[in-house]
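Blinded run. Sample ID left blank on purpose so nobody reads anything into the name before looking at the predicted structure. Input follows.
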Amino acid sequence: MRRKTLDTLLSATGLLLALVLLVAGGLLTWASTFAQGQVHDQLAAQKITMPSGKALEDPQIKPYLEKYAGQEMTTGDQAKAFADHYILVHMNKSSQGRTYEEVSGEFMKKSKDPAADKTEVAQLGELRQSLFMGNALRSMLLTAYAFGTIGLIAKIASIVAYVGGALLLLLGLLGLRHAKLAGDAVV
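Blinded prediction complete.
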């Protein structure tokens, strides 16, 4: 095989890979923009203001939420901090660390017992409902965090694809230039 032919084939392959990476970079940029935009828009629509003031006095809350104090929740990171270090802390305090499943089981058992204290059953029912709503809200917020993270990963991957595509484009063009200079040498 002649050197010129080999250089041309390798350069063309590099240029094709550069095109693939540049297209992938564009798609990843679109995915990143879409995911992060959706997270922002959906969270902003809820008009959740991050806790501030006395709400941050709890040592289980303050280190995680202090940097967001008083801000409108619009990012996945804020959503995760709120879900894991505000809602969950309050859920655990109100239930003495019991889960929704544990409280619900206790409620179901006591609500079937005719000798059970009706006030206690009612309180367990309210706690059960509160834990259910807290878990539902945490789930939604943590889903926003997950999509925000996916958007960030897509953004990083798009940058890597653009850099790789640009590098292969440059190398492919240099290879074509070298092929013109190589002449008829046999490899």
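Unblinding after everyone has recorded impressions. The mean pLDDT is 94.
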